[in-house]
Amino acid sequence: MTWSIVARDEKTGHFGVAVSTCAFAVGARVPFIATGIGAIATQSFVNPYYGYRGLELLRAGAKAADVVHILTEGDGGRSQRQVHVQDRWGNIAAYTGDGCVEWCGHTIHKTFSVAGNMLAGPAVVDETARVFGAHKDMPFAQRVLTALKAGEQAGGDKRGKQSAALLIHDEEEYPLLDIRVDDHTDPLAELTRLEEVSRGRYMHYRKFMPSRENPFGITDRAEIERRIAESIAAEENKG
């Protein structure tokens, strides 16, 4: 019923999870990230505790393969589950239960993994992986969404489409980007639109929010507006 990508940007080290499905509000259940620690996607008769417990294990120093083993060994419903994990060292592990609805499966690459179930066929996962791997120069958020759209064009969820989500963490404890489309006739197109909107102002404003280096951020409204204008102008000049 779902396919997703768990990735780490080679340039920045940012973790990202993107997912699309023919089910309601997938962003509330599938993607989990802890800054500098790792990322998890839990799906197919989704067990949200794979996310919460998995992040606990990653924080404690467990590697991706151990996390997957511990989560699935202790779950009586594991034959219906699917999960993939990347840890802070770049190790990746995945599990697809033998009871997941066909087509189901996963693929692991150097900096990312793709997994899906109840798909039109293996081309959905293969195309998502191929396109992500082929666009290393693309900004991370756009690269992830472009890859998912390629999977959709290859057939996507064989039941149709309803929701999609993108979660990215940078160096801060809170997300760099957390956007969700909970119920839409074309969720990936809408998610792509939202990501584009985020680049218009929000991503510039985000630079002046509280951070590890500046715990108070900037609270002077005039100063914020001045800096946002400068940031937007610098971005336009680069283009």
Shape label: globular
Q: State the major sheet.
A: 6 strands, antiparallel
* Alpha-carbon Rg, integer: 18 Å
Name of the CATH class of the largest domain? Alpha Beta
Number of contiguous helices = 7
CATH 4th-level superfamily of the largest domain = Aminohydrolase, N-terminal nucleophile (Ntn) domain
CATH topology of the largest domain: Glutamine Phosphoribosylpyrophosphate, subunit 1, domain 1
Which structural category fits the helices and strands?
alpha+beta
**Neighbour order of strands in the largest sheet:** 7-8-1-2-9-10
The termini sit apart by 39 Å
Query: Spans of 5+ residues with little confidence (pLDDT < 50)?
Result: none
Number of domains: 2
CATH architecture of the largest domain: 4-Layer Sandwich
Whole-number mean pLDDT? 96
Fraction of helical residues: 25-40%
The percentage of residues in β strands lies in 15-25%
Beta strands, count: 10
H/E topology pattern: EEEEHHEEEEHHEEHHH
Outline the fold blueprint.
Layout: E1 2-8, E2 15-21, E3 31-34, E4 38-43, H1 48-59, H2 64-73, E5 82-87, E6 92-96, E7 105-108, E8 112-117, H3 123-134, H4 140-153, E9 163-169, E10 177-181, H5 187-200, H6 202-205, H7 221-238
Antiparallel strand pairs: 1-2, 1-8, 2-9, 3-4, 4-5, 5-6, 7-8, 9-10
Helix pairs in contact: 1-2, 3-4, 4-5
Q: Can you offer a commentary on this structure?
A:
- It is globular, with a radius of gyration of 18 Å.
- A hairpin with a 3-residue loop joins strand 7 and strand 8.
- It has 7 helices and 10 strands.
- It folds into 2 domains: 2-185, Aminohydrolase, N-terminal nucleophile (Ntn) domain (Glutamine Phosphoribosylpyrophosphate, subunit 1, domain 1, 4-Layer Sandwich); 205-238, no CATH class.
- A 6-stranded antiparallel β-sheet has the order 7-8-1-2-9-10, with helices on one face. A 4-stranded antiparallel β-sheet has the order 3-4-5-6, covered by helices on one side.
- With 239 residues, it is of the alpha+beta class.
- Helix 1 (48-59) packs across helix 2 and helix 3 (123-134) runs antiparallel to helix 4 (140-153).
- The mean pLDDT is 96.
